[in-house]
Amino acid sequence: MTGSKEDFILIMPALAEAGFFVQAMDLAGQYESGTAGPGRGRRYDYDLFVDDMVAFLESGTTPVHLLGYSFAGTVAQLVAVRRPDLVRSLALLATPPDPGNGFAHMKRLGPLARIANGSVGAFFMVTGVKLNATKVDPQRLAFVRSRFALTSRRSVSDIIDLMLHAPDVEQQLERLDIPKLVVVGEHDLWPAERAAAMADRIGARFAGYDTGHSPSETAPHQLTRDLLALYATA
User: Fold this and answer.
1) In a 3-state reduction of DSSP, which class is residue 91?
2) Which end of the chain, N or C, is less packed with Cβ atoms under 10 Å?
3) Left if phi > 0, otherwise alpha if psi is -120 to 50, otherwise beta: which for 2?
């Protein structure tokens, strides 16, 4: 949410050099998929995002090593349990670590979770990114801000609402006989110990880095190392 496929630009060449064919996608409503989404009068929902990701995967060779970043990690979990034939391994990067209200345990904003809704959450999310709350460098910040010219504000609002009601598929994930990895920055939006607990519940390896919500940008070599180790076990 408010991100794009370019968030992986630092790890894609390293994975390709290791022999993998790598692709990334913008979720519906985000950046260069900003005009994609539901028809008039309908909302972005989990089925839309899951169906999109399934179609994207089916357009190539399967099964794949699937990585979901932040909200897309929740979508990737749903894809893995609904279509296990498509997924060879699953990596969850800075993904909300708890079912239900995804904001309940968020640092700083946790107390607001009970009164938050999509519109309010979208305002704070977009404002925080524009004000550089994550402290990215000036060149990166200019690109991050420019994405909002294409990103649908309605998609951000609807995703916030979806994050307030995250599905619980942890038992199904735990039963999936594939390698799994949970990666988080120690200074992420959610406490790292909650991500570690999620990893334990779903039978995944856990990796924590001394960084924030965007390890693919701020710890690309460590992330690539751990992804390659994950793929080697599949």
Assistant:
1) strand
2) C
3) left
Structure tokens at 146: 């420019």
Average pLDDT estimate for 29-43: 93
The answer to whether the CB of 182 falls within 8 A of the CB of 92 is yes
Question: What distance in Å separates the CA atoms of residue 78 and residue 62, rounded to the nearest whole number?
Answer: 17
pTM: 0.90
In the numeric block, which tokens belong to residue 176? 């999936």
User: In the predicted model, what is the mean pLDDT of residues 2-28?
Assistant: 96
Query: What would the two tokens of residue 83 be?
Result: 């279509």
Tokens of 64: 């794949």
Nearest in space to 202 (alpha carbons), one of 223, 184, 181: 181
Is the N-terminal amide bond of 63 cis, ω within 30° of 0? yes
Exposure string (b/e) for 167-200, b if CB count within 10 Å is 16 or more?
Answer: eebbebbeebebbbbbbbbeebbbbbebbbebbe
pLDDT in tens, 163-193: 989 999 999 999 999 999 999 999 998 999 9
Neighbours of 153 (CB within 10 A): 14
Residues 6+ positions from 215 with CB-CB distance below 8 Å: 93, 94, 183, 184, 185, 209, 222, 223
**Residue bearing tokens 């005009």:** 35
Domain edges within the chain: 5-100+167-232
Cα atoms in the 13 Å half-sphere on the side-chain side of 205? 15
Q: Any idea which architecture 5-100+167-232 has in CATH? A: 3-Layer(aba) Sandwich (3.40)
